[in-house]
Amino acid sequence: MSQLTWNKPLPQPTVASQPFWDGLKAHQVRIQQCEDCAHWIFFPRLHCPQCASRRLAWRDVAGTGKLYSYTVARVATLAEFSDEMPQLLAVVELDQGPHLNTTMVGLAPENLQVGMRVRPVFDERPGSMTLLRYTAVDSPQAEVIPAAPAEASAGVVVDSPAAPPQRQISCKDLAAMRSLVSDQWTDWSNDFLVSQQLIDQFAALSGDDYWIHTDPQRARDETPFGGTIAHGMLIHALVSRLRMPLGFAVVDFNNMVNYGSDRLRFTAPVPSGSLIHGRCRVKAVESVKSGLQMTLEIAIHVLGNERPSLLNEQVILYM
Ligand SMILES: [Zn+2]
Question: Using one digit for the tens of pLDDT, what is the confidence trace for 85-111?
């Protein structure tokens, strides 16, 4: 299962480049021109590379140009891009002169030709950023690639593909985010089997091979649990295996960070061979200096047990 549908690195706007990204968001290619020497400039800068003037103006341009150079990447430059292979990495020369790095879309690699006329394609990404792609001027490729609905909300919770469409909530809309706070638990997630094999693997990985986890015979004889039990931290980690039907997706962020936990309790043992499932609820939403912080209370139970085995108040930071 996927934890994040969009887990690719995104550009980080700077003071100099922000107007460029704002332009793309409005489906407009916007580049700088020097007001002293009329030189066209890309990438965004604070001074003119030709005459060093600081009097730079942002201008909307058509964004058209020609393919200056390209390469067909058949091995992903990062694992996160492996779904885009082959990637058509290109340098486009704008009609105003500057070159920019981009990706060609809507074209087969064999149809790329240096010098061909190209036009911009605005690729909207979940999380409020639009990227600039290019295609051939005569390609049937749409001018805008709309953002797919963001599915992940916390890095730990995603709806199953069969779930109804989620309500999208902008993390910049504090009132809407606050309306998510509720005492009501979600429905249960899928079930997941905590096998002895998994416990043994976690013991090897973590180095915590205490017999209460790894020696079924001794655990049967010497504990009240009737056998081995899972490590609390294993159950904590297995939240990634549980798809919580949250019913909403937070959008409009550049970065989402697992900020840790306000409270983590292992409230009941999980015997080896148990099926677990989980549910959650939004406990708190607050505006913080770096963005918006959501506290998601997660409960993991052994199936049929009213008492949870784990309670975690996970803090997620949207920036
Ligand atoms: Zn200049």
Answer: 789 999 999 999 999 999 999 888 999
Tens of pLDDT, residue by residue over 274-291, are 999 999 999 999 999 989
- Cα(58) to ligand 1 centroid in Å equals 13
Domain membership flag for residue 162: no
Whether 269 is in a domain gets the answer yes
Instruction: Please check whether residue 223 lies inside any domain of the structure.
Output: yes
Residues 214 and 286 in one domain: yes
Q: State the distance from the centre of ligand 1 to the C-alpha of 26, rounded, in angstroms.
A: 27
The per-residue pLDDT for range 36-61, each reduced to its tens digit, is 999 999 999 999 999 999 999 999 99
Kindly give the distance from the C-alpha atom of residue 35 to the centroid of ligand 1, in angstroms, as a whole number: 7
What is the domain extent for residue 75? Answer: 18-145
Domain total in the chain:
2
Same domain, 82 and 209: no
Give the torsion sign (CA, 123, 125, 128, 133).
negative
pTM over cut 0.70: no
Q: Is the pLDDT of residue 157 over 50?
A: no
Q: What is the Å distance from ligand 1's center to 126 Cα?
A: 36
C-alpha distances (whole Å) from 205 to each of 25, 229, 230 are 44, 16, 13
Beta-bridged to residue 58, according to DSSP, are 32
Q: Does residue 161 belong to any structural domain of this protein?
A: no
> What is the CA(115)–ligand 1 centre distance, in A?
27
Q: Ligand 1 center to residue 69 CA distance, Å?
A: 26
